[in-house]
Design brief:
Rossmann fold, Isoleucyl-tRNA Synthetase, Domain 1, 5-stranded parallel sheet, 4-stranded antiparallel sheet, about 15% strand, flat
Amino acid sequence: MVKEAIEVKIKKAYQMAVDEGSFQSDRDCPEVIFIEKPKTESHGDFACGVSLKLARHLKLAPMKIAETLKNYIEKVGTNGSGAMTVEAAQPGFLNFQLDKSFLSNIIFQIASAGESFGKGKSNGKKILIEYVSANPTGGLHIGHGRNAILGSSLANLLSFAGWHVVQEFYINDCGEQINKLARSAFACYQKKLGKTVEYPEDGYPEESLSPYVDKAMEEYKSDPSKLEKAEDLGDIIKEYFRADQEKLLLSVGVKFDSWFSETSLHKDGKVEEALAQMSSLNYTYDSEGAFWLKAKELGDERDRVLKKSTGATTYLANDAAYHLNKYKRGFDLMVNIWGADHHGQVPGLKAVVKALGEDPDKLELLLTQIVNLNRDGKPVKMSKRMGTVVMLDEVLDEVGADAVRYYLAESNPNNPINFDLELAKKTSKDNPAFYIQYAHARCCSILRRAGEEYLDSETGKMNPPRVTPEQMREIEQAYGKDEHMFDFTFDNESDNPEAFAAQKKLVLRLSSLPDEVEEAARVMQPGRIARYSYEIACDLQRFYEVSRVLSEDLSVTRSRLGLIMATRQVLANTLKIIGVSAPERM
């Protein structure tokens, strides 16, 4: 927002310099204009070093270029964005200082955009994000949870940034794990019928399957013939597990647009079609009774088996069929979010995509690292059902969906997470999830209090509201429609530099949401938005400590209420991206 406005000024100044003969060049600036925050506050609010790069094009000293650009920038004017001062500094930087009118305009722009502030324009592109994709053979553990929250938050982020997003769960509902589920469930069923059977030694825990077998027996008690085959009972049980997974994911705000069955690929002959397509491109061969992919030729460390000597296809063959289906659906980009234990499968999948004749650059694979569960810094194992595995629903029950979403979204997926249960329950600044929500609730509280009578601490009497209900309605109606309503009555820098700095810092932080969204979407890390939200909460606290919002001066109160409204809006937008609720009271 601000950087874009400064960039526009520099571009226009460059064109004016060319038009008037100060620069011998084409009108378009030949270098990228990069705006940055200076490391030293005395160097201004923003800086640009494009003059240093332009020296080789214009055959002029960087300082001469910077001074020329400064003069023309001052001629460009405000263009409705508010005023700023610019200085040329050695060895050729342009340092920009924003004045109150520019800061006031930022608040008005946030108000005008509302829920759309920070949103990118539609890029007309379609992206598929496939994540979680667990076997329907049991519950979801905390690792699945990290995968789920990353995928959901990334979908929110990319949608906000301008992509058309489709979220998909690939159901691994065939293969040896599913066969083992069927054998285990059928043995459990036989035992419930009073028959003497040997439970599979490598089967799934009988105690975890028993409630689901009971459910099947109740559902099909009028037609028990549907339970007489292990395969049929297995299909019923795996659907129960899948439905429970979907319900659990919905409880933490994760909703898929489609659930794609691996079994359907076999029923529809798509696996064989994929194998045939790779063969037609001469990327397969037969050896030792098996069917192989020339993966090494395609950049992998070794060749990979696609079909075993038994005739059974491998996971890679099934993945080939699934990804060919994805490509045929016409997505501009496809993202797979996998656990770190799938790292060894990445080269094989990339090789398969090339063997199918598709563009591997359209497929992005993100790997999430493990989640370590702690309590007050000490490792814990919570699960009573799965031994060493911590189940997602247990963590949800203890700390709630908002804390789970924040902590699993905030971290870089390339890094392990140390999730401290006690920290996630704290109601203090130490807990970023709580602190961000509290900042939003505080903004709502200030706006409510503005129109309420208040207790005078000295007299003990109730005084009338600092802002009358009529004035408050006027402020709310003008917000986003009348930029002069919120011309900032900032503390003068000379009178109260601490207050002025806090006010300005908060405004500039809010203004950077568009840049934060753009960068987070580019690197596919919604955690950037989570951390940015926390920075806003900290800046709001500092502003609140040194700047009284509700005062006897209506013009001061009005302008600062505008800043509170803007802060509330930006926090609401960022919390929506990471999927955390924005409470009005806490």
